[in-house]
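Much of our argument rests on the idea that a fold can be written as discrete symbols. The amino acid sequence and the backbone structure tokens for this protein are reproduced below:

___
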Amino acid sequence: EVHLVESGGALVQAGGSLRLSCAASASRLVFEDYIIGWFRQAPGKDREGISCVSNVDGRTLYESPVKGRFTISTDNAKNTVYLQMENLKPEDTAVYYCAAGKTAFPGCGTFSYEYDSWGQGTQVTVSS
């Protein structure tokens, strides 16, 4: 199991930027066998996957609402995954979660069932 802690959430104006961090309590070798996903849940809405990265092959995926604005990256030496968010919009307001899961396939996906370790979430609020 991997213990994950998100940080970096804040109140930001529309058009602004923010970087979220996801620190994992796992060794580098273990962490490299995982895919890492970013999810978010807005008030009254279901949790949605927005991005992921595979530490096995380096492939990334971005869902349409964030494609071109968000960038996922990893620093495996620090067991940390980042989500750089640019040109934030009010509809980006949500609690953001990182998640980790073992993968048996190339790349990664944004389905919740692919992940078995979850962080506690960090609040991102974008004002208009």
Q: What stands out?
A: The CA atoms of residues 38 and 98 lie 5 Å apart.
